[in-house]
Amino acid sequence: MILTSLQAGQILPAQILSGQMSETEFALCFALLLIAPLSVAGVALINTGLGRSRSAAQALLGNLAILAVAAIVFAMLGATFTGSPVGAAHIFHAAGRPWNWLGEGPWVLVGFGSITPHAQLALLFEFLALSMAAIIPWGSGADRFRLNAGCATAAVVAAILFPLAAHWIWNGGWLAQLGANFGIPSGAVVGSAPSGGFLDPGGAGVAHLLGGLVALAVIWIAGPRRGKFPREGLSTAMPGHSAVYVLFGCLLATSGWLAWNSAGAMIWLRVPLSALPLTVINTLLSASGAIAATFTVTRIRFGKPDASLCANGWLAGLVASCASAAVVGPRAAIFIGIVAGIFTPLIVEVLELAVSIDDPSGAITVHAAAGLWGLLAAGIFSPQQGQLLAQLVGVAALLGVMLPLAYLLLKILDRFVPFRVDPDGERMGMDLHELGGGAYPEFVIHRDESYR
Q1: Closest CA to 347 of 373, 381, 326
Q2: Could you tell me the CA-to-CA distances from 150 to 293, 381, 432 in Å, in that order?
Q3: Per-position b or e across 156-186, b if 16+ CB within 10 A of its CB
Q4: Are 4 and 270 in contact (CB under 8 A)?
Q5: What is the domain partition of the chain in residue ranges?
Q6: Least packed by Cβ within 10 Å: which of 198, 227, 387, 398?
Q7: CA 48, chain centre distance (Å)
């Protein structure tokens, strides 16, 4: 018997897990993947609302352009290196162990129609996960990140960074085979094969942690917005221009997230249909626990709840649920959300005041930190013994490889496609500078005090 990450203690025969996907399962999973892009749309709207009004049109257009570039590059190049759990791969041997580090697939999706229905859904899920990872850095660079630089960054993510992470975790790479090749005792099922490998059915690591690490690299390279840190140790408040966009984006993203986590559980864990309601409930409970905690923390610290931080708390709860919603019980899901909600406003404050990181969208906290916590929580609360060790190894690999690699690649890219807009462009706003018109032409947008 093989333990699978469904409900605590539930055991299913290996034959069920490795069997072909039925027509009903395929139709349901495909329908869920058609709804899942709402999560990407919600994050795009949140990022726009957290930026300046004079950059709103550029922010939303940038999301569309980034999605297009990422999809094309991934189809032409990235998917080749992502590979599949049963396809060819590049493997080297070191210390007497096989290290499956890169996939080997067809170029430009040649032969896509001949692969199994399950593999087709897996590739579609990867396209959606890439979309999320690609737009996360765009929100962190709001109000000073040039449009062509955002698209070039998305191309790097789609061609190199995302394929590596997706292959390692989802498509039979070395992190997926930790149990089989490195003796980590676990019964987790990844890619329909018992491996004791790294567990990430919803992309907490592949999409969110990766996207947050790329966002950190973008912030380091582009620098803070003018006037954000006028003197060392001080920070100027630059609130987002539309709390309505931000809060509505949370509602929109929630609809997509419920479908996202359900589809991920079906594709990567091969859960039965009877396990999907619990996955949905856990996703909602995690987000609910997070916003309740953030509401309480901000009310205690500021006297009143903060709308944008509460929205970020809700989103952090959704991100944390990506790795754990299909593997834990409801009580654990609430606890996971509460922890995410508590640290969201605290980390945002530490990053801004202590480290002088200007992250308008809060991506480092919401996506990187919450994604990391969700991955660890999946190991802590998983019924499989040894899963936490696999999660720790995977998190260490993502932090130790992806962050330096992302910074190196983007630093080189910045020399050819400068990230930072010139001072005059930042002063007048990204809409006028890059698009020639504002998002709200009927309103008078007053200049900021910081530009006097």
Answers
A1: 373
A2: 33, 37, 17
A3: bbbbbbbbbbbbbbbbbbbbbbbbebbebeb
A4: yes
A5: 40-84+112-441
A6: 227
A7: 17
One-letter identity of residue 318: L
Alpha-carbon distance of 280 to 242, in angstroms, equals 29
- What is the model's pLDDT at position 443? 66
User: Six-digit token pair at 405?
Assistant: 């690699």
In the chain, pLDDT over 90 holds for what percent of residues?
72
209-263 residue pLDDT tens: 999 999 999 999 999 999 888 876 678 889 999 999 999 999 999 999 999 999 9
By DSSP bridging, strand 193-194 and strand 189-190 are antiparallel
**Tens digits of per-residue pLDDT, 60-78?**
999 999 999 999 999 999 9
Q: What is the pTM of this model?
A: 0.91
Residue matched to tokens 């610290």: 301
Phi, psi dihedrals of residue 90, rounded to the nearest 5°? -90, 120
Among residues 3, 16, 52, 96, which one has the least CA distance to residue 266?
Answer: 16
